[in-house]
Specification:
nine-stranded mixed sheet, 14 strands
């Protein structure tokens, strides 16, 4: 297909002859990179010493292990150890999953495709051993879902909770982006156009009849890829597209991140953020946006909360609350593991999404072709936002409905998760109990499997307060009626739309208060079997 085989006639290779002065273009930030690594190297002896002291002080033979002074010293050195630690890329660590058929499946990660800057991972499920009392697990038939992880400073393992929640009802693939400092210079450059090309190649590899989900930053390239495939009427158009907390139109309810990206010119980012990879890494001399700068930016957005979190860790360690302490360790082990971004890709993303807003304005160009989002007609669209998102404000992701006017109304859905910030959109308890089941249900309703006669009952999606009430019959399969997408009169006004939630079986309730606008003449009379029996006994006694 021409669209998939399209490449630059003369790609901008990283090793083409350039003036020698180019190597010193980012010399100031490169020295900061060297200084950062030197600081980590210098703090290694302190890190090792604090680790050994903590282990010795918490040992069973330590006389101070159970004293107040000993616990405080152990808590203090653990805080010091974690402050001087160098966090590596963690593993997904998903070994098994209980699917909708109540069988336990072993999960195995398999690399389906490997490219210089990304590899595609498939979470394969294998039926485990069953007892003679349980039925044998049949081969799963689940919708194919491609999760596009953000390439914005963290590893794809940040979506571990996202993958685990969606594995129950979906056959999951995920993009695992590489640390740019580990990609040799001869592998070439990487830009936003290459990002979209990668997604097209992965879509072709997974095959038709698949779904795609973009978390945060990938919302723009995912929507652009879908529009390009739709314009060519490709058979590899996704069946549904779910965008979660993404900067589709950052002119709506701008956050601190949006304001900073808008105020500074692109030349400022090139001079103040881009550095050359030190010579002792595999990607030596590659121009990158260092991951430690991205981490400092993330933490500075909510520095008080991070400081309070570490203070609570100190208190948990003193009081022996290991459950909360382990939760803190797991989160920050993931949060502080960062990667470098290719400079060309980083600058393209800032310019396209945050400064010029090319996609919502209809001016985004991909390899000489305009990205026309009006061409999307077959792909269902669901957008998810967090009420307290301080990175992608409420309404920025919902703008995808506005710029995709030709998607049928019965293929639209929008969900605003109450009380969560940016990371709560795809992580945490509310994600597992509310958002993930709604997303899985939306995917199922737009998959051919939902229209075929399958063996056994339809999947049960436990959503929110009705988690114990299964969806039965046609209600579990029929697509919900999405409310019309409300368009804002002005881009300065946030888009306000009610969350479209899937239908659920309603348990009978007793009204205790009058409804608004209606007058009740008296209390509702609800007769139960006990009340009837009591009144009958009273009549017999009187007789």
């Amino acid at each position: 297909m021409r669209l998939f085989n399209q490449r630059h006639p003369h790609p901008e290779h990283a090793l083409v002859p350039r003036p020698a002065a180019d190597l010193f273009q980012h010399s100031q930030m490169t020295m900061i990179y060297y200084s950062h690594d030197f600081g980590e190297f210098s703090g290694k002896p302190l890190n090792v010493a604090s680790h050994m002291f903590r282990k010795a002080n918490r040992g069973v033979f330590s006389p101070y292990a159970h004293t107040n002074l000993g616990r405080r010293m152990a808590a203090g050195v653990e805080i010091l150890e974690r402050a001087t630690n160098r966090y590596r890329k963690p593993a997904f660590g998903i070994e098994s999953i209980v699917c909708a058929d109540d069988h336990v499946y072993a999960v195995q990660e398999r690399v389906v495709a490997a490219k210089p800057f990304c590899q595609l991972i498939h979470f394969e499920k294998h039926a485990g051993q069953t007892s003679e009392l349980s039925s044998k697990a049949s081969p799963l038939k689940q919708p194919k879902l491609l999760i596009v992880a953000p390439y914005s400073g963290h590893y794809a393992t940040l979506l571990r909770d996202t993958v685990r929640a969606l594995l129950k009802h979906n056959d999951v693939y995920i993009t695992d982006w590489e640390n740019a400092r580990d990609v040799p210079l001869y592998m070439g450059n990487f830009s936003l156009e290459d990002y979209i090309q990668y997604l097209m190649d992965f879509a072709k590899l997974i095959g038709p009849n698949y779904h795609i989900l973009g978390v945060c930053q990938p919302a723009v390239p995912v929507l652009a890829m879908t529009a390009l495939l739709a314009a060519h009427d490709s058979k590899y158009q996704p069946l549904s597209m779910t965008l979660m907390g993404g900067p589709i139109d950052t002119r709506i309810t701008p956050t601190k991140v949006n304001t900073l990206a808008k105020e500074k010119p692109i030349e400022w980012f090139s001079h103040s953020v881009i550095a050359r990879v030190p010579h002792y890494y595999p990607g030596a001399f590659r121009a990158v946006c260092p991951g430690f700068l991205m981490l400092q930016g993330f933490m500075s957005l909510n520095i008080d909360a991070h400081m309070s979190s570490h203070q609570r860790l100190f208190e948990h360690l003193i009081h022996g609350d290991e459950d909360h302490a382990d939760a803190h360790r797991r989160f920050y082990d993931e949060y502080r593991a960062v990667l470098d971004l290719p400079a060309k890709y980083f600058l393209d993303s800032v310019y396209t999404a945050f400064q010029k807003h090319l996609l919502p304005r209809g001016e985004m160009i991909w390899k000489g072709e305009r990205v026309n989002t009006h061409a999307i007609t077959k792909t269902a669209l669901m957008t998810v936002e967090g009420e307290k998102d301080d990175i992608s404000g409420v309404g920025q992701t919902h703008a995808a409905h506005t710029i995709c006017p030709n998607i049928p109304q019965d293929k639209r859905a929008h969900l605003v998760q109450q009380g969560v910030g940016h990371y709560g959109v795809f992580n945490g308890r509310r994600w597992r109990e509310h958002t993930a089941p709604a997303v899985s249900k939306f995917i199922w309703e737009n998959d051919p499997l939902s229209h075929k006669s399958l063996k056994g009952p339809a999947p049960v999606f436990m959503i929110g307060e009705n988690a114990n009430v299964p969806l039965e019959g046609e209600e579990a399969l029929s697509p919900p009626k999405a409310s019309p997408v409300k368009k804002s009169a002005s881009l300065k006004e946030p888009l306000k739309s009610s969350a479209v939630k899937p239908k659920s079986a309603k348990a009978p309730t007793t009204k205790s208060a009058p409804q608004a606008g209606k007058q009740r003449k008296g209390p509702a009379k609800v007769k139960s079997a006990a009340n009837i029996a009591a009144s009958a006994a009273l009549k017999v006694k009187r007789a």
